[in-house]
Design goal:
This protein is an alpha/beta fold and about 425 residues long. It has one domain (about 1-425). Helix content is about 30%, strand content about 20%. It contains eleven helices and 18 strands. Strands 2-3-5-4-6-11-12-15 form an eight-stranded mixed β-sheet, with helices on both faces. A hairpin with a 7-residue loop joins strand 7 and strand 8. The protein starts with a strand and ends with a helix.
Amino acid sequence: MRGYSEGGPTAKLESQIITYKRMNRIFTLLLLSLAFGLNAQERYLDEIFEAVQVTEDVEYASNITVITALQGLPPMQMPQMMDIYEPVGDTLTSRPLVLIFHTGNFLPQYANGSALGTRKDSSIVELANRFARMGYVTASVDYRLGWNPLAGTQVERTYQLINAAYRGVQDARTAVRYFRMNAAEMDNEYGIDPDKIAMFGDGSGGYVTLASATLQDYNDIILTNTGDPIESFWYDPGDGSYVPMVIEAINGDPEGKQDGFAPDGTQLCIGHYPEYNSEFNFQMNTGGAMGSAEWLDSGDVPMVSFHCPHDPFAPYTTGIVVVPTTNEPVIEATGAYDFHAIINAQEAPNNNDIFQSLDLADDISVAANAINDGMDGLYPVLNNYVDGAPSEPFDSSPWQWWNVAITQAVDTANSTNIAATQLSL
């Protein structure tokens, strides 16, 4: 990921912004042709609006967070917020909605060892603004954070990270239902079309959106398609038994419609908007991975993925997720190359047929299709390669950027080394 100084963007940052513009063009082409069922028109391809109205700090729900454990406190209820971006001067009142979920390792900014991790991240704000100038409504959505990457065993780390991601899925789906509720009960304040909704996830947000796109019910999380346990999602709590790491009665259902309570009575989930559905039409991710290939089924929503093949943290194929904060292994996950291979092996028409059949011929699609083994929808991001090898092998997210001076000030105040570490990635 890239930093920038107070004096302006570096040459590398300018290069990344050019790449980002091209990526954004691909996203909009695909949004047009995919689940939204729109005819090709200038509005959703080009930035036809000059200004964007941002409604900040919109509370879409409130739920139970465990992040309070960082202060030695029990789980407690907290508001869940989003920022909503709309084009200024628009006369349409039924517009496609894109929900965007930031990165951050499921921990707060800086506490996660990163300069990123909020709905205000530079690349997230830029993306939200660009989509809005093209005529979409976009929302940059916070989701619940909290787990212990320093837990002593891989089983403990896996348990905590799975539960953190599960809460993220509940929150993402709750955000979908909030907009449907708003459209039905609050005079559609933001002028969205409740039948045309997409999710975009960056890094950890990609884990959230990919899971949201593939988990149809609770059993999807813990069982294979043949009904056998997915071993990585079960554990021995110390009494010789074999139990799931997520239990619906305790953690709430995957949609976040139902309450969940721990055995001691502590509430862990507050259900919201149960009368509305959580479905959406399209998933996009930059980085991140899928918790299990078993989650992916024929009939899931179309997916587009940008991923660095040499990402050291989230696997491009199938491998162990490594936490950037500690470099400790956590859980095996399925990366973009492998789950797109599964999609492309599906009986025709596969999940991505709706845009694969378009034979997109823009420069980026042509370049991607030359290196993605024919899997349209997979965009390998080769950042600064020399003779086929990455010259920056630890760079997993070249589309991100952040303010070096601010991060250095945080380092000075807290005796950390985040800026230098991030600049090495």
